[in-house]
């Protein structure tokens, strides 16, 4: 008999009326439904609340929590919204907790698949799948480690989530990335399963920003989480050959260098930076030894697989 962990979901949502209906339809169609799905409207001023309330009236496992509007927009606000949802599931006897974005869609067996993987392998603390943009773009897993788990949908074993202390409220972003690094630093394995994927409707990093400005902000975030300078140089070199050609990679590097020159205070502890840089140099060394390899379907064997990963 197939074993699947029980789970809850929390979705911070801010003015997601354009996309959240697709996420709602995907969740309602799931063959393995959650014990509770808390959608936290973070001061939405569009029709997000009405859309969620209409669906919650028909499905009692969906709950809408409304937060007052925030004048300032920053990534720490997402964590505050998530934590407001977390308070609503304290008494729920769940085994896994999911952070789910409000602008993605997925197959009806998406969570059945993921919760089976988590149940089958006790060493896994955080898992997910790749995402595809509506343009068809997705991560190239010749260059991205399968230990990286996209923030669009992160599925935590409850004990792992509690061990890392939940999400860190970093104003500049990289909240999801820090959670992945923290999980591995605590001894858990993290894993992206490429057999499935979800569709992401809003281009990453473009909410309120032009693409070039978004790349610059990614460079700032790379510095904030402690990316090794050698790693960042390789990352910039790769981005130069991806759209928008040249200028995108230069904007990424400019963001990192500007934070370096200003000696911007990093919001993560030194031990996490040390752990993160050690992993990056290990991956870079393996990449230089092996070169990029064609991506293959990933079957979990219980053995560590850190991949190459010069793009994550």
Report on this model:
The chain has ten helices and ten strands. The protein starts with 6 loop residues before the first strand and ends in a 22-residue tail after the last helix. The protein has helices spanning 20-28, 48-58, 76-86, 110-120, 158-163, 175-185, 211-224, 229-239, 247-261, 270-290, and strands at 7-13, 36-42, 62-67, 96-100, 104-105, 124-128, 131-133, 153-157, 189-192, 198-200. The strands form two sheets. Strands 3-2-1-4-8-6-9 form a seven-stranded mixed sheet, with helices on both faces. Strands 5-10-7 form a three-stranded mixed sheet. With 312 residues, the chain is α/β, with parallel strands linked by helices. Strand 2 (36-42), helix 2 (48-58) and strand 3 form a beta-alpha-beta unit. The protein is globular and about 50 Å long. Mean pLDDT is 89; it is low at 295-312.
Give the low-pLDDT segments: 295-312
Number of strands: 10
So what's the overall shape? Answer: globular
Average residue-wise pLDDT: 89
- Major sheet: 7 strands, mixed
> What percentage of residues falls in helices of 4 or more residues?
25-40%
Euclidean distance between termini CA atoms = 36 Å
What is the radius of gyration?
Answer: 19 Å
What is the subunit arrangement here?
single chain
Instruction: Output the number of helix runs.
Output: 10
Structural class by SSE content: alpha/beta
Strand adjacency order, main sheet: 3-2-1-4-8-6-9
Q: Which H/E pattern describes the elements?
A: EHEHEHEEHEEEHHEEHHHH
Beta-strand percentage? 15-25%
């Amino acid at each position: 008999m197939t074993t699947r962990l029980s789970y809850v979901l929390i979705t911070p949502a801010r003015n997601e009326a354009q996309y959240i209906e697709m996420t709602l339809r995907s969740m309602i169609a799931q063959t393995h439904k959650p014990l509770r799905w808390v959608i936290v409207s973070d001061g939405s001023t569009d029709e997000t609340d009405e859309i969620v309330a209409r669906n919650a009236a028909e499905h009692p496992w969906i709950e809408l929590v409304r937060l007052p509007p925030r004048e300032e927009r920053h990534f720490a606000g997402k964590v505050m919204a998530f934590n407001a949802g977390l308070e609503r599931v304290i008494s729920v006897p769940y085994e896994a907790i999911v952070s789910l974005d409000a602008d993605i869609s997925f197959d009806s067996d998406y969570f059945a698949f993921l919760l089976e993987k988590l149940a089958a392998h006790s060493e896994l603390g955080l898992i997910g799948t790749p995402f595809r943009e509506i343009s068809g773009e997705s991560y190239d897993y010749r260059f991205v480690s399968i230990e990286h788990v996209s923030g669009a949908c992160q599925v935590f074993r409850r004990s792992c989530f509690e061990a890392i202390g939940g999400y860190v409220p970093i104003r500049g972003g990289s909240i999801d990335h820090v959670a992945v690094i923290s999980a591995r630093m605590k001894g858990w394995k993290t894993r992206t399963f490429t057999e499935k994927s979800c569709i992401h409707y809003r281009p990453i990093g473009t909410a309120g920003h032009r693409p070039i400005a978004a790349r610059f902000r990614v460079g700032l975030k790379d510095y904030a989480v402690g990316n090794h300078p050698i790693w960042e140089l390789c990352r910039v070199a790769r981005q130069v050959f991806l759209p928008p050609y040249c200028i995108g990679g230069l904007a990424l590097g400019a963001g990192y260098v500007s934070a370096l020159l200003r000696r911007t205070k990093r919001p993560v502890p030194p031990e996490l930076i040390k752990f993160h840089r050690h992993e990056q140099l290990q991956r870079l060394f393996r990449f230089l030894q092996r070169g990029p390899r064609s991506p293959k379907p990933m079957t979990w064997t219980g053995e560590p697989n850190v991949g190459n990963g010069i793009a994550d």
